[in-house]
Amino acid sequence: MTAPVSHKHVWEQGGPDTLLLLHGTGGDEHDLLALGRELAPGASLLSPRGNVLEGAMPRFFKRLAEGVFDLADLERRTRDLAAFVREAAESYDFDLDRITAVGFSNGANIAASVLLRDPGLLKRAVLFRAMVPFEPEQPPRLKGTSAYIGAGRLDPIIPQANVERLAAILRDGGAAVTLDWQPAGHGLTKADVDNARDWLEKQAVGGRR
Ligand code: MLT
User: Which residue out of 44, 47, 105, 146 is catalytically annotated?
Assistant: First the structure.
């Protein structure tokens, strides 16, 4: 089976759990590999690069301004990413039931968009510094989905109410949501990583333990 071509990516074969790593604006497919290894030692890693360029900075979808998204492009890129994940599962022979998205900032936003647009594809998601990607017309069917949201009380990009709204949308759809506030800005802290790792361990993701 040939590797999927829609996204430049890294595939690191490990155990039966797979982390889908989604970088922030200006990152690439190498950005979150170390974080993935730290969060779930022994897991397989699938790390695509976003297909949109803002200047020289890769992203997963276009935006009109900071925090203002091009919703048509977001919809298209969300479907493209979902198709990539399904194709990768076939190519690399991993179990879609054992995938966990781990996204930071723009990567967390497209992960949230996949949760809303294609419920059930991602069973678990770690969303670091995420916001509402779009308002769904009706609650998504997210029973059986678990999400960890790592938010920063001092985040200059994402208002607290926006994070609360994201958690509410996911909960309304039936997802189990852990919302973890850090006394931090947009950047990740050690506490974010430690708490997300604990959450993943409770979800039995990682394979080593
Ligand atoms: C986005 O565009 O997804 C958010 O504004 C976060 C970011 O700066 O990437």
Answer: 105
